Amino acid sequence: MSHGHADFIEVYPDALDADTCRTIVARFDASRQDQPGKIGGGHYPELKHSRDISISGLADWKDVEQRLNLAMCAGLVHYLRKYPYTLIAPLMLQRPGGDGQLRRLHHGDVAAMDDAELTRLITTVYVPGRINLQRYPAGEGGYPYWHCELFPKDATADTLHRHLLWTLYLNEDFDEGETEFFHQQRKIAPRTGSLLIAPTAFTHTHRGNRPRRGDKYIATSWVLFQRAERLYGQG
């Protein structure tokens, strides 16, 4: 169990193989489906300058969406083993003990679960967000505005259900372009196939620095809580 000075920013190298990453980048460039990147539903190029494809629900991107979600889920299993309260603290989860009586889960229970059981719990509690493929053009692209991923923008409250953010870096043939976290004073250098997972709240305010001498490609999304009706039933 990790205590001490955890900053809750985790990077998992080789979450996706380099060939698959290259293929996704090539498909992005060939697709001509990209749109100007938005923030919270609005287009503010001075805050975020990118070309995006929201691939979720698009038939011709279904295989990529599945590959990325599988990579994210594998990383999430590792993340929850390191930080079990990610799963336990917001929800009073319980399960039958040896005597058949329900009891609350604690962090030791997560450690004792095998990957299959933990994955089942993940799919019960969480839902994957919409995946955006993004290209940040060299020398001008970026998301220089300090921001977090948890905000009360939409009536469905989806943006308030965001629990974790993730970014999978699809290339590294550029300079700079790090994901920079303000309070933790950490810069994550993009590496092909690396998966970044971090919390969505103001504590993990961050920005995407401008790539130099090459375009930066990423896939990015969130891990959201299931809606209350799914988690708790109606009423």
UniProtKB/TrEMBL annotation:
It comes from the Bacteria. It holds the Pfam family 2OG-FeII_Oxy_3. Keywords: Iron, Metal-binding, Oxidoreductase. Residues 124-225 form the Fe2OG dioxygenase domain. Its EC number is 1.14.11.-. GO terms for molecular function: oxidoreductase activity. Belongs to the iron/ascorbate-dependent oxidoreductase family. This is 2OG-Fe(II) oxygenase. It comes from Pseudoxanthomonas putridarboris.
